[in-house]
Specification:
Shape: globular
Helix content: 25-40%
Number of strands: 23
Number of helices: 17
Structural class: alpha/beta
Radius of gyration: 25 Å
Distance between the termini: 59 Å
Strand content: 15-25%
Bound molecules: zinc ion
Largest sheet: 8 strands, parallel, barrel
Length: 543
C-alpha cells in the first residue's frame, strides 16, 4: 500500500464515518419512536400544496420518508384539500402506499379554506349558510373518505360571515348561537354522514383551534361537536410569546387548552398540533413540552413544507434532541389525575376583557386543573369572568367559601359578585385590570402570598420568580418549568417529609440543581428555559 492508497483509505473511513453517524442516529430515533408510539406518537402533515410540491414524485417521497424517520415521525397526514386546491387522487394514493410500505401510519386531512362563497369577514373563510358551498364541502369529504380511513379537519372549520343570507337565517339569535347551530348541523349533514356513507370505517377528527375563548363566537361548539366527531385534536401553537405579530401567547396556553379539551373529550382526545411560525428553537420546543405535559397522545409538527424553511430546520434539530425526553415525560404524566387549583372555563363562556387569563395565571406558578365545570368538591379554585356562564355560580361560590376553601377571583368577576360573597375572608382578588398579560409583571414577593393562600389546602408552599410554572402530576410527580431567559432559584415545601429524585430535565444540556431535606426541595439553580420533573415518595419509603 503506497501513500496515495493510504490517504484514500483514511479519506474513505472518515467519509463513511460522516455518513454512517447521522444515518444510524436516524435509525435509532425512528426505532425509539416506533417503540414509544403507544404512549406518544409523533406526526406531521403534508398540506395539499406540500403534496403537490413534495409528494408528486418518488424522489420527493424518499426525501420526505427520510426526514420523517430522522425526526421520529411515525404517522403522516396527507391532505386532500386546502385553499381551493384539490390534490389529485393518483398522487394521494401513491404517496399513501409508499408511506404505508415504509412502516408509517397514514391518515388524511382537509383544510376548509376557500371552499366556496366567501365570508364577509375573513376572506379565506366561507359562508356555510350558502347551499352550493355546503354541497362543495360535502364533495370534498366524500372524496377524502374514499381514500383515507381517518380524516382530520384543520382549524378553519368555522364561519364569521354576516351576509344578508346569514343575517336572515340567524333571526333573533346571537351570532354565537346561530353559528354554533349552523356548524353543528353542517358538520353532521355535510361532513360526517356523507363521509361515513362513502367509507363506513372512516373516523373524522375535529381539530379545535388554539383560540379557545372565541370558539363559540365563530361556531365551534365543543360539547356537541366533541360528542358528534370520532376524535378531537387541539391547536397548541403558542409560537413566540413575545411577538406582537404572533399574538403574544403565554406558553402555558398550550397546556391549558390541551388539558381543558382533554377534560371535555376524555377518551376521544387525540393529539396536539403546533407550528414553527415566529418561533426560535427554545420557543418551538416549549410548545412540544407543554403539549406532552398536558397528556396529549400525539404531537403533530405542522407542516413538512414549513419545517424545511426559515427557522424550521433549526427548530427540528433541537426538537430531535428532546424527543427521547418527551417520551419519558409522556410516561410520567399519562392518565394521572392532576392536583391543584380548579380552573373552570365553562364551554361557550364569554371572556369579556379577560381573554385567555388562565394562561397567564398558569405562568405565575399556580398549578391549575383546567376543567369545563365549576365543581364544589374542588379544594381551591380560580374563577375569572368566564364563570358567569354558570347559572349556579353564586350558590357554588357560597358553598365553597363556607367550607373554608380559598377562591381566587379576578377583579372583573369580583365586581359582578354580591357584596356578601365579595366580603368573605376566603375570597382573594387578583387584579387583572382587563390586561391579563400584565400578570407577568408581578414580582416574586407579590406572588408569594397568593400562592401560599391558594396552596394551603395541600400544605404546599412554592416560591419562585414569575414565569416559573408548577405542575402537580398524580401523587408522585412534580414538574417545574422555567420560561425565563435567566436561571432561577425556586423552592417547594410539602406538608410531609419526602424523598425526591430527578426524573427528567429538558433541554438535554439544561440543569436543575436541588437539595431535598425533610419536606423541602430547594432548587439552587434551574437553567434558563428548562423543564425539570421530579418523582417523590414519602420519606419513610424508599424509591
Ligand atoms: Zn353568509
Amino acid at each position: 500500500m503506497n501513500e496515495k492508497h493510504f490517504v484514500a483509505i483514511i479519506a474513505l473511513v472518515v467519509l463513511s464515518g460522516l455518513f454512517v453517524t447521522p444515518a444510524s442516529g436516524a435509525e435509532s430515533l425512528w426505532d425509539l419512536a416506533q417503540q414509544n408510539k403507544d404512549v406518544l406518537r409523533i406526526s406531521t402533515l403534508f398540506t395539499a400544496q406540500n403534496v403537490r410540491a413534495y409528494l408528486s414524485g418518488d424522489k420527493g417521497i424518499d426525501d420526505a420518508i427520510d426526514w420523517c424517520k430522522k425526526t421520529g415521525v411515525t404517522h403522516v397526514f396527507i391532505e386532500t384539500f386546502r385553499g381551493n386546491y384539490t390534490a389529485p387522487r393518483k398522487t394521494l394514493e401513491h404517496a399513501k402506499e409508499r408511506f404505508l410500505a415504509a412502516g408509517f401510519d397514514v391518515s388524511g386531512c382537509v383544510t376548509t379554506t376557500d371552499v366556496g362563497k366567501k365570508s364577509t369577514g375573513w376572506k379565506i373563510i366561507a359562508c356555510y349558510t350558502d347551499e352550493p358551498t355546503q354541497q362543495k364541502l360535502q364533495e370534498i369529504f366524500e372524496y377524502t373518505a374514499s381514500i383515507f380511513d381517518e380524516i382530520m379537519i384543520d382549524d378553519f372549520w368555522f364561519t364569521d360571515c354576516e351576509c344578508d343570507a346569514c343575517q336572515q337565517a340567524r333571526g333573533q339569535r346571537s351570532w354565537a348561537e346561530y353559528r354554533c347551530d349552523l356548524m353543528t348541523r353542517v358538520s353532521r349533514q355535510r361532513v360526517l354522514e356523507p363521509a361515513r356513507k362513502v367509507n363506513p370505517d372512516v373516523e373524522v377528527v375535529i381539530k379545535y383551534p388554539q383560540w379557545y375563548d372565541n370558539f363559540h363566537n365563530r361556531g365551534y361548539e365543543v360539547v356537541q361537536q366533541t360528542a358528534d366527531f370520532d376524535t378531537i385534536w387541539v391547536g397548541t401553537e403558542t409560537r413566540d410569546p413575545d411577538s406582537q405579530r404572533w399574538g403574544r401567547k403565554a406558553q402555558y396556553e398550550a397546556y391549558f387548552i390541551m388539558r381543558w379539551l382533554g377534560a371535555i373529550g376524555g377518551a376521544k382526545t387525540g393529539g396536539g398540533w403546533f407550528d414553527p411560525y415566529g418561533t426560535h428553537e427554545d420557543t418551538y420546543v416549549e410548545q412540544a413540552r407543554q403539549t406532552v405535559l398536558a397528556d396529549a397522545k400525539e404531537m403533530l409538527l405542522f407542516c413538512y413544507g414549513s419545517l424545511l424553511r426559515e427557522t424550521g430546520p433549526a427548530n427540528v434539530e433541537k426538537l430531535r434532541t428532546e424527543i427521547p425526553g418527551l417520551f419519558k415525560l409522556a410516561r410520567l404524566v399519562r392518565g394521572k389525575p392532576l392536583q391543584g387549583i380548579a380552573a373552570p372555563k365553562p364551554p361557550n363562556s364569554d371572556a369579556h376583557d379577560e381573554q385567555y387569563v388562565y394562561d397567564f395565571v398558569g405562568m405565575l406558578g399556580l398549578p391549575l386543573v383546567p376543567t369545563p365545570k365549576i365543581n364544589t368538591a374542588a379544594r381551591a379554585a380560580f374563577l375569572p369572568v368566564h364563570a358567569l356562564k354558570d347559572p349556579q355560580l353564586n350558590s357554588k361560590l357560597g358553598a365553597m367559601l363556607a367550607a373554608g376553601k380559598p377562591i381566587l377571583v379576578t377583579d372583573g368577576l369580583a365586581d359582578r359578585l354580591p357584596a356578601s360573597v365579595k366580603a368573605d375572608k376566603n375570597l382573594h382578588v387578583l387584579e387583572v385590570n382587563g390586561q391579563p398579560r400584565s400578570l407577568l409583571e408581578l414580582s416574586r414577593e407579590e406572588l408569594r402570598p397568593i400562592r401560599d393562600k391558594m396552596l394551603a389546602p395541600w400544605g404546599i408552599r412554592f416560591d419562585a420568580p414569575n414565569k416559573v410554572a408548577l405542575y402537580l402530576i398524580g401523587d408522585d410527580c412534580i414538574v417545574v418549568e422555567n420560561f425565563n431567559d435567566e436561571p432561577v432559584t425556586a423552592s417547594l415545601e410539602f406538608a410531609q417529609p419526602v424523598n425526591a429524585r430527578q426524573a427528567l430535565v429538558l433541554p438535554v444540556d439544561g440543569a436543575a440543581a436541588f437539595s431535598c431535606k425533610a419536606g423541602k426541595i430547594d432548587f439552587t439553580r434551574i437553567t434558563p428555559r428548562t423543564l425539570v420533573a421530579l418523582t417523590y415518595v414519602p420519606a419513610r419509603e424508599t424509591h
